Amino acid sequence: MTYHTDTNKSMGIAIQRDQDDIVLASTLDSDATFTLKNFGKVTSVNYGQYQTPQSNKWISTDGNVTYKKNTDGSYTITVPKYSVVNVSKKTQTPSNNNNGGNSDNSTTTSDTTNNNWNPSSPSTSNGSTGLPNYAKKTHTVVYATKGLYMYKSANFKKSQRIAKFPQAKRTNRPKFLVLGYARANNGALRYKVRSLKNGKVGYITASSKYVSNAYYQTMPKNKHISVISKKGINAYTSASLKHKTAHYKKGTRLTVKRVVKYKLTTRYQLTNGHYISASKTMVIHK
């Protein structure tokens, strides 16, 4: 199996769980396009996540995945940024997309999950989802403001630790994609996440003392931000951050016109009309 990605800055991870299933994940700032060769006939491509890194239980979530069969028998699969899909060739797995026939047809798949337990947004005023208001939405990118561990389950035990994320400077704080929620036996809320640093999946604390949004959601009070990234930050003509127009060095003070939501992240539109990332590891309100 081989793959390539859309841009030099995107990253793709492929993990073969068994003879019939391959997990494909896209991280960082763009979609990842995988090309599967010598895999066999694909019967399903599902958007979601395994319950734990060792589990065989797949939990479907909302999302669309486009894939097609090529004339040489290989498959091209595009995984949206910060997303995970499971590609299967199991004959007993029903195919909802009839992709096995025409080699040049693109297909889109979609799956849903129980939103009462794995909601896409925090609790409403009546508490219907059972989540506190500080809980971040699923498919939101968060980062660790203090050192923490990732665990195999929601019940944190030293023997269940998967990875350690030491406290880091703001510009180097580890980022995670929120995939879902879980409660420990003592009732503590946990995030089920995927690390955008190493691709590992597990559980971390949902405490606002340790975890926060990795991207600004609001405008700075005085409409000014400063670049804090050591490498500076690029400006682009659109919120998709394509077509670079300028580069601002660390310490540059910029004036913001508005905040724009873009897929799983946010952007700041500057007063000159250009767009930059609203990542808290790259800019800060001043």
TrEMBL record:
Tree of life domain: Bacteria
Pfam families found in the cross-reference section: DUF5776 (PF19087)
Disordered, as annotated region: 88-132
Domain (DUF5776) ranges: 215-283
InterPro entries referenced in this protein's UniProt entry, alphabetically: DUF5776
Compositionally biased spans, kind Low complexity: 93-130
Name the UniProt record assigns to this protein: DUF5776 domain-containing protein
